Amino acid sequence: MDPTSRMTALLGRMRRERNGAVADTMRCWGRPCGLNYGVSLPTVRQIARAEGTDHALARLLWQQDVRELRLAALYLADPARLPEERVFWGAGIANSELAEEAAFALLSRTDAFAELFRDWIAAPEPLLRYAALLAAARSERLTIEWLDPVLEAVRMETDPAAAPWIARGAVAMLAALGAQNEENRQAVLRATGSPGKLPAEDCVHEELAWRLAEAQC
Q: Is the pTM of this model over 0.85?
């Protein structure tokens, strides 16, 4: 089948799993997709993974304003193509759910994540910074060299709506960094040891203090 026919078949499978009651209660930061069938994430993942890698189909799905199709696209995409197509994929991350799933399903699978991280962590769009932070927390390439860019990403966030999400992503990444070894833990504690002037900085300071203390136990 051609990509359009496969997309139609995939949408049909998603529609059979729809849950209108769940869709009505879904809340996320950012712009919700125009169409949402309320299919659970585990079900979306199962359906998408059964398709295997198909980058052409993934690109087509990503351009649709349908929640389930965009989520599925992240599993069908070829992670090796992400660096050269970062603008295309970044433009489709319209809300926190897509950012979180992109970090889990696509960003963390690319061998060129370090390059992508440096680009997205400094992006003006907070959703790209959020995705980069969450993916960094899961990355095997996580390094202390990323500490300063993360702190700068937190400091540059002045939007009250975005600040809690950026702080959440930063805490996940910094906690993972601090858990690598005692030297990193001390470096993270020193860098975040006092409250900041912005809401995101305060959130990171308060959350990390007990997260890193708990990790030491």
A: yes
